[in-house]
Amino acid sequence: MTKVSIIGATGYAGQELVRLLCGHPKVEIKGLGTQNYKGQPFSDVYPNFRGIVDLPCQGADDPQLIAESDVIFLAMPHGQSVSLAQTAVEQGKKVIGLGADFRLRDPKVYEEWYQTKAAPAEQLAKAVYGLPEVNRQVISQCSLLANPGCYPTTVILALGPLLKEKAIDPAWLIIDSKSGVSGAGRGTTLTTHYCEVNEDFKAYGVPRHRHTPEIEQELSKLAGQEVQVSFTPHLIPATRGMLSTIYTVPLAGINAGKIAEIYQAYYGKEPFIRLLPVGEVPHTKWVSGTNYCDLAYSLDPRTGRLTIFSAIDNLVKGAAGQAVQNMNIMLGLEETLGLPRVAIYP
Amino acid sequence: MTKVSIIGATGYAGQELVRLLCGHPKVEIKGLGTQNYKGQPFSDVYPNFRGIVDLPCQGADDPQLIAESDVIFLAMPHGQSVSLAQTAVEQGKKVIGLGADFRLRDPKVYEEWYQTKAAPAEQLAKAVYGLPEVNRQVISQCSLLANPGCYPTTVILALGPLLKEKAIDPAWLIIDSKSGVSGAGRGTTLTTHYCEVNEDFKAYGVPRHRHTPEIEQELSKLAGQEVQVSFTPHLIPATRGMLSTIYTVPLAGINAGKIAEIYQAYYGKEPFIRLLPVGEVPHTKWVSGTNYCDLAYSLDPRTGRLTIFSAIDNLVKGAAGQAVQNMNIMLGLEETLGLPRVAIYP
Amino acid sequence: MTKVSIIGATGYAGQELVRLLCGHPKVEIKGLGTQNYKGQPFSDVYPNFRGIVDLPCQGADDPQLIAESDVIFLAMPHGQSVSLAQTAVEQGKKVIGLGADFRLRDPKVYEEWYQTKAAPAEQLAKAVYGLPEVNRQVISQCSLLANPGCYPTTVILALGPLLKEKAIDPAWLIIDSKSGVSGAGRGTTLTTHYCEVNEDFKAYGVPRHRHTPEIEQELSKLAGQEVQVSFTPHLIPATRGMLSTIYTVPLAGINAGKIAEIYQAYYGKEPFIRLLPVGEVPHTKWVSGTNYCDLAYSLDPRTGRLTIFSAIDNLVKGAAGQAVQNMNIMLGLEETLGLPRVAIYP
Amino acid sequence: MTKVSIIGATGYAGQELVRLLCGHPKVEIKGLGTQNYKGQPFSDVYPNFRGIVDLPCQGADDPQLIAESDVIFLAMPHGQSVSLAQTAVEQGKKVIGLGADFRLRDPKVYEEWYQTKAAPAEQLAKAVYGLPEVNRQVISQCSLLANPGCYPTTVILALGPLLKEKAIDPAWLIIDSKSGVSGAGRGTTLTTHYCEVNEDFKAYGVPRHRHTPEIEQELSKLAGQEVQVSFTPHLIPATRGMLSTIYTVPLAGINAGKIAEIYQAYYGKEPFIRLLPVGEVPHTKWVSGTNYCDLAYSLDPRTGRLTIFSAIDNLVKGAAGQAVQNMNIMLGLEETLGLPRVAIYP
């Protein structure tokens, strides 16, 4: 059994890690680090875990968390993972960061979009961007993993193969994304107040949401050229679920058959990507609680434009589930271990 | 007091007309026509009206409905308004159709998109497309009014002035719309089952939603050239509310100031359009229950693209409220009469 | 036009007062007092009011709020209204307190349940409990009005007539109440976080919710004897709406006809109480946004027990609407002025 | 591997069985019987199962369903299981009925409350009421199991031990229950239309909900005397979750300690019952997707009354999960096999 600690265990992504890892057959949860609940049983903070994970929380800075585990998950607000990651890597541990700290290669870009100091260059140089469907090989050998953001996961999975195969125009990438509220975390803000969200719908972060440079960095790498996107996130009055609707233009000679072929080639054997039959569109509910990304597209014969739909559960494939998938790869385990496949429905 | 009848009064748009008209100071509701509730008090079908509108429903084809009223609202499923409208116009009544029957000028286009027989050409020729902010003058003189669809209302109000003023590229109009469930009507279908909608989000009608030709017809007229759009509607897990997020490209020489100026010129005095301050985006909740359309835009300096946000209550400005606004204009009344302005919040 | 100020205008009850009063034909809103938004336009805090109430907020302690108005609404957290009320009454103003400060006659009971110092005895002596259907006469002559709590409103309206007419056993009053989230206010707490409320249901305040002594005080007065209740509130995953399901036992000789007769005698002419037909039960949605209380009951022939259902909109009849109804009475206006009757549906 | 068939697999309870059974380590799903989807892959009807359960549905009356399986789950509307159960039992299969057909001992009671013909007396005589915490022993030996209704499960688990130990007054059992919408099934009715349920709350089935006689039958057996209850169900605007709030009176000499002791004695070792610490109340969200029943109580020192709270997921412990638990017992497997324990949160 591999020993794991989760630092930042009482945020929504953290507790989702606990849910997945406490059912993982090859893992033992050794420690749960938190900022506010030191000494309290985890099941006091999340009573759905009563009788299942009653482990007392430790302080986020408790050195035992790192010392006694083999894999350290860091699910802290950005800016708070850098020194913890440093310590853990120095002790030879595997580190999986769920925050933004290690995702952007260029510290200047990070500092511009996040308005905080970036991680040291040598740390960034070591970190691997953990989207298994794109760079599984590198992930398997890394010890510092930057788990992707939720929006970037939907977008890169949708556009990556088409950009890499030069099937679409990289100058026309318009991304209209929608996310459930849990993506905003458990912090108590007016924006997440039930009465403000329920029966409402709105965009936010216009026009500079922080996931934009992450999307552009990864798409540029795949396209082999600088790529800019228009990215607008919206808030769905729902707890979970994320859907990106992406508008682009196929390059000359690319028809629906070719697009199907490309997706099939890239994802036909992926355990967590489902290519929907022609004519269907993904529902967020179909992937809720699971690690799936459901993909579909529609090539409009009238306008010649291509619309791609990409749905995930923002807390699973968009955070904790993908982190566990990455851990499985890093540890040489079967990639699907401990990851739920059937969405709870309805 | 003007006498009005509502045929199709027990659908969601119909009952919203009843709500607005029973509080209208210059109107008396004379008759309520329905297909399924003949003889039952209206307040049995919608008990929120108990003690307020207890009028018994009549059959939709009851000739008294037309004979005894001055204004006839037709809130029937498409295809069922043609002969009723004919009869009413012949009797010299004002007719306001909330369905799609009279919106499209070209019967061939109607038949292609709706798969039903179009209204007779002479009837279509008489019908006026009732978007007051665009063609108030013609509305004031017509006797057969085609009340706009909900999605087209959000889109035409957002794009009309910019296309007319040649401020944006008509070749790049990408419309990502989101609607509450009430737009689907009161019919009992799996698509509107609580458990299927709640905690879900999805697109639908891809890529051929019926509001597409209506949007294109009106935008083409305003642009002075044929315009094609990419239009993708989505379903919000909420009862009311509609938001369109529209992506386009400003033409050379058009900056944010110019766009503000255009909107100000067109809408600065409109009673039901609110131009939000720079940096804000509309929330559907801010217009819920009211006849407002809230508009905002963001010109991204990085990409040069323009994103426009347009929010309405799909049952009010998107249906019944706009119909009452049109009635006020047609009757020479103050345009805002009987139309609620303060959204219920939260 | 009567001049009114609302102190505590940016809480949910406060802004609901603004909604109702800005549409009231005999009232002019003169000032809006707040604790946190001094100097900001009210429509910045609640953008649904943009273009309608753009008045800048004043500090809650701004003496102009009281000096320049005839009626002062105090919608502050409990404990903060006492000296404001004092000042206003001394200046000869009409004061309507929406908080709990003046509801309980006995300062000791107040202090036991609220754990704060009670208002001075002479102030409590002047205050009138403002449930119009019970004590309209006294309300019309008072200058310090204690607006009832939301739960007590549902319960006293349901049980008052039956207790007064000795129709039910005062030893068996079991009240199972359910409230929408807006009753908890706009404060940002974990309890009102969207993700914690959505898809959840639970009781709270067990077994000592603060509305218990208020219910018992008023029921005892009506019953002419000391009455104790079992009261358990629950949280509905909805923004608005309150339903109390009340279980009791008819006294000997009381049958369904007699109960109908009593309700009819007390409420047959009440403008804001609707007695539902036998066999129907109230839906919170039927009264949403209105000042109605919908009442129904069921006498079970099997068990002999009586179940009463009482539904209101917690922010209207349960707070702001009832306050306006009281203001109308205190000012000698028509009691229904400015109070919406048709619930927005669906 | 035990072979199982689910007849009525495309209702909500049926598909929940599929979810649980397709992850069960000792079971193989052999057939899925449906009334309306014959020949279609199950994952067409529930696309969350795409790639997981793509088995084509069979007609509900396909004899292979019974012939080729060892355990037959009948998740049909009541009245349609009788002859299927007959056939299956005759072939020596284990039958688990999720409908009401075999729950009531007395055919007259069944016919009075369900207004349909009861199952034959000899079938009823064989059927065992499957609440494992009450009669595990009998379940382990039966071949025709009547899986309990959702409401009765919450109530019998809450009251059973107290009635059996003569700790409460059987004359005072008042049950106020609340259920999520999924309990109403996937049928398309106005009652389950999103717009009618969302932001609404109401009672239903007053005063004769069909679960009443089932509750009374089982409580009477446990109490050793005839017991009558007041039972009022309500609809929560949520998909899943059920909470019963139960009001009763302790008998002389019974204090909180004694109640705790009784619950501990009966449930301390039960794998699917969690006794919450004093002062906590169950949230439906804490058990969502799991087979737990969370129990708490509050003895009010003021009134002397006892309030008990009992929460389950209506589709799991209230239907499919309990059915699987029963199957495990009937097959001599570990009772918790295949039953999820961690609720998805938030």
How do the helices and strands follow one another from N- to C-terminus of chain A?
EHEHEHEHEHHEHEHEHEHEEHEEEH
Cα-based radius of gyration of chain A, to the nearest Å: 20 Å
Q: Compute the number of strand runs of chain A.
A: 14
CATH homology superfamily name of the largest domain in chain A: Dihydrodipicolinate Reductase, domain 2
Low confidence ranges of chain A? none
CATH C-level of the largest domain in chain A: Alpha Beta
For the biggest β-sheet of chain A, the strand order reads 3-2-1-4-5-7-6
Provide the helix percentage of chain A: 25-40%
Largest interface: A-B, 44 and 44 residues
CATH hierarchy: architecture of the largest domain in chain A: 2-Layer Sandwich
- Described by its quaternary structure, the protein is homotetramer
Largest sheet of chain A: 7 strands, parallel
Describe this protein with a few key phrases:
homotetramer; 346 residues; Rossmann fold; Dihydrodipicolinate Reductase, domain 2; 2 domains; 7-stranded parallel beta sheet; 7-stranded mixed beta sheet; 12 helices; 14 strands
Summarize the structure.
Four copies of one chain form a homotetramer. Chain A contains twelve helices and 14 strands.
Q: What would you say this structure looks like, in words?
A:
The structure is a homotetramer of 346-residue chains. With 346 residues, chain A is of the alpha/beta class. Chain A folds into 2 domains: 2-126, NAD(P)-binding Rossmann-like Domain (Rossmann fold); 151-314, Dihydrodipicolinate Reductase, domain 2. Helices cover 32% and strands 19% of the residues of chain A. Chain A has helices at 12-21, 42-45, 63-67, 82-90, 107-114, 121-126, 132-141, 150-164, 194-197, 211-223, 256-267, 316-330; strands at residues 2-7, 27-34, 58-59, 71-74, 94-97, 128-129, 144-146, 174-179, 202-203, 230-235, 242-248, 273-275, 293-299, 306-312. In chain A, strand 2, helix 2 and strand 3 (58-59) form a beta-alpha-beta unit. Chains in contact: A-B, A-C, A-D, B-C, B-D, C-D. The A-B interface holds A 174, 176, 178, 180, 195-196, 198-204, 206-207, 228-230, 232, 234, 236-241, 243, 245, 247, 281-285, 288, 298, 300, 302-303, 305, 307, 309, 311, 346 and B 174, 176, 178, 180, 195-196, 198-204, 206-207, 228-230, 232, 234, 236-241, 243, 245, 247, 281-285, 288, 298, 300, 302-303, 305, 307, 309, 311, 346.
